Amino acid sequence: MIAPDPQLPPLREVIARHGLSARRALGQHFLLDLNLTARIARAAGDLDRGTVIEIGPGPGGLTRALLAAGARRLIVIERDERFLAALEELAAVYSGRLELLPGDALEIDAAALGEPPRKIVANLPYNISTALLLLWLEKIQAFESLTLMFQKEVADRLTARPRSKDYGRLSVLTQWLTEIRRLFDVPPRAFTPPPKVTSTVVQLIPRPEPLCPADKGCLERITATAFGQRRKMLRQSLRPLGRDVAALLAAAGIPETARAEELSVEQFCALARALAATGR
Question: pTM (2 decimals)?
Fold first, then answer.
């Protein structure tokens, strides 16, 4: 049973007392709206099992919501040392439930943290959000779910369907490995300082198996090459592969006149299998 939430000083008071401010160079924007942080925590589901991992907690707005929502073990990764004192105060209040891990999330193997099931719940720093997601996709089976806030334009790319302007390599790789859904948008005014863009919370649930068979390296190569010249027909855009493009497309059952943005995830996987059959 999770103990009742302790009385905590208002976040704005903590920020003022420690002289904290968001640094745009690090993609920082404080989310102080209690209703929104609670909504994100609820969206992550049952937190009273395994390990919850948060990236870039800053002064601890979402951190408080996750603890209040019942996170039994919460590990927060914070690169900016300015926030550690405030987070240590929070850890002392929640006796053994909050662990601070100073460092760069891009250099930390989140898949090895704590005990499973692992959930990542985070308002991601804008400037490394895509890089972090690609890193976690490498070991996606280590996680039960990822509930993440991105810039809306990144969320658009993650959830995009074929024949849309946002559909691209990130769409294919993410949808191949996970089931993704948009949860809700967060307006700029909810943050301090307000960003220039709307944010979107999405949830990714790892598939038990990838959507269809494919070698990941070949799929990454195919999508990078095809979307590198997305408006050209595949018979032209795939030439940098150094293979018989006509034969590859025929093996995958795809017309030579098709364009990258028209292919489904399944068709990209067929192309990846055809590429793998040539010995890469």
Answer: 0.94
